[in-house]
Structure formats: structure tokens, C-alpha cells
Amino acid sequence: MINEKKVIELPRTIMTFNINMSLIPKEMNISKEQLSLAFEIIYDKEYLFFCKTKEEFRHWAKIIGLGCKTYGVFCFPLEAVVKKSRWRVPNIIYRCIGFLKTHDAINVEGIFRMNARVGRIEEMKKMADDDEDIHFDEKDTCYLATSLLKAYLRSMVEPLIPYEYFEYYIQLPEGNVDSKKFINSLTESHQDTLWYIGEFLMEVVKNKEVNKMDETNLATCFGLVFCDNPPSLGLTELEFTKKAIQSFEFLLRNFKYAFSDVKKRNIAQGIEPPQYPAFQPLVHLPFDILIEQIKMELRDIKKSRRMSATYLTDKSTRRKKVGGSLSIASTTSAVRKEYLKTKYKKSNGSFADLSLSSKFGNNRPS
């Protein structure tokens, strides 16, 4: 305990958005909206966290999600999901796009406009949240893959276009921000995921005479799932919708230039995703068993630290004669405390340097 407050070591915890409803007293009358802003931490017992706002939820879910073990992929930070995927892009994304490629989706009219059966979508979401390598059945359709893809993108605790970049994102159509510099300023996980999805969308556009999905139609389908309305900008929903769609359409129409560096890097690293299975399913143990395992680990660590401190104290103990009597003067070595260090990959540039200037101007070739 530090200052009489509970200390939770995040690397030893498990985070989940599948709330154990039995922990909530009936008299609390928790609404669906409140549950959508809640998450659970498994440590020496189950801890429920309820956030007051969507922004607060995103903030804590991102910080904690990057520092602990996670059950599932929906809602979690992109970097945490990528770590599980055994590739540079989330498993759920490269499997959905892989299915679309092998099932001639570019020839399906209105491919991203139609939705699949809700029940089947939920089954696939459960598969992903059970940390299995996504696989489709023979009877599944392209509409299921597109529906699952969009459902995952909507769930992301941080959109592919993060809040702090949105102000620059909506300036792309006006020419105030260079699109390549903008893309290169994102983290590599965001760059790679945007490129991988966009690369397939460009194949769809090439066949727009058949599928009826040009840049404008695709922007209407995807514009609002790649970003969210940052409260700090004070945009109305109508303003946000218009700007988000226009910006994504601009990105599609300038895709080759904007993602040229990202594509070059991905080609060098290999653009074929892992063969199935990319990984073995993560075994989700019951929470009560996990709690007991964590308790045992904590007891072992505490014992180990205590023994280490005793050893270091004994080793440094020396006798000194003081006033004709003997006293023990000991120098106790402090036992190091573990701190979580969340590492963020450095981006190739700063989003603060995107506006037009002599150094960071829009130098796109005409």
C-alpha cells in the first residue's frame, strides 16, 4: 500500500470489457450507457471501473489497455491488438480483407452498403474476443466480412485517425496540410492499418463500374468509422459528418501519394499476412482461477523481495564501537519498486508540424 491506497501492478493484471454483472448490486440500476463506459480489471480480485464520459473512458481504456494483459480485441487500443495478431495489422482486419479478396468482393454491387445477419456478426465478434484466429465458414458471405470489419473499426477505443490528429485531418481537402506528412506523422500501427484497408478499397474503386462503389460512396461508408468527433473542436454532428466524409474521400483520391512511404516500407517487410492459424487461441481461464494464480504470484514476489532485502541488509551490516559499547550500524539496500513504463513508438514526424510553412509545406507534386 502507498499512502493507504491500493496499488495494482498492471503487467500482472488482465483487462476485459465483458463485465461480470453479478458484481453489480441490483439496486444500482446500471444503464446500458453506463455499461458501455465500464471495464473490468482482474487482479487479486475483480475490480469494476465506471467512467463518467466517453472521453474519460477512452483515456483510461487506452492507458490501462497498453499496460496489462487483455482478453479480447474489441474496444482495445490498436497497439495492444496488433501485438496479438502476429503481424503489423490486427488479425480481424487482415482475415476480413483476405476473405473479401478470395471471394471476388470487388465484383459485388454495393459491397460495403449491405449488412450481414446480426446473429452471425455477434458469433464472429465472440470468436475475436475469445482471442481466436478469425476464420469464416463456407456459407459466409462478403457482407459478413465487411460488417465485421466496420464493427471492429467502430469499437476502437482510439480511432484510426486519433483525436489529436483530427484537426489536421479535416484540413486535407483544403490543401492546408500535406497528406503524406499527415500519414507519416501517425504511429506505424495506424499507418499500416490505414494503408492495408485503403489498398483494398482502391481495388474496389478500380472496379466501380461493376460494384457501384466509387470514392464518394466508400467515403460515405467508411468516413465515420475511421474517426470520431473530438469534443475539443466543438463541431456539431452535422459539421463533423460532412468534414469526416470529405476528408476520407480526399485521402482515397490521393491515396497513392499519401501512402507512398508506408507502402514502400510494407513491401520491404512483406505484404502477405500469416497463414492460418497465425496463432493458437488464448485460453481464457475463469476469473476465480486467474485471481488465485495472481494472488500466488504476488505472495511469491513479496516473499522474494523480503528475502532479498534481508540478504542485502545482512551483507551490509557492520559493527561499530560507540562509547565503549557495541552497536549495530546497518545500511539497508532499498528494494526496487516496479513501475509500468508504457512505450509508444515514435512517429516519423510530429502532427504539430503539418501546417503549411517553408519547412512543412504542401509540396505534393502536381
From TrEMBL:
Q: Which PROSITE patterns match?
A: RHOGAP
The alphabetized UniProt keywords are: Cytoplasm, GTPase activation
Keyword hit for rRNA processing: no
Give this protein's Gene Ontology molecular function annotations: GTPase activator activity
Q: Which GO terms describe its cellular component?
A: cytoplasm; plasma membrane
Where in the cell is the protein located? Cytoplasm
Q: Which GO terms describe its biological process?
A: small GTPase-mediated signal transduction
Indicate where this protein is primarily found. Answer: cytoplasm
User: Is Cytoplasm there in the keyword field?
Assistant: yes
Domain Rho-GAP span(s) in chain numbering: 76-259
- Check the record and name the SMART domains matching this protein: RhoGAP (SM00324)
Functional description taken from the UniProt entry: Rho GTPase-activating protein involved in the signal transduction pathway.
Give the protein name, as stated in the record: Rho GTPase activating protein, putative
Q: Source species, please?
A: Entamoeba histolytica (strain ATCC 30459 / HM-1:IMSS / ABRM)
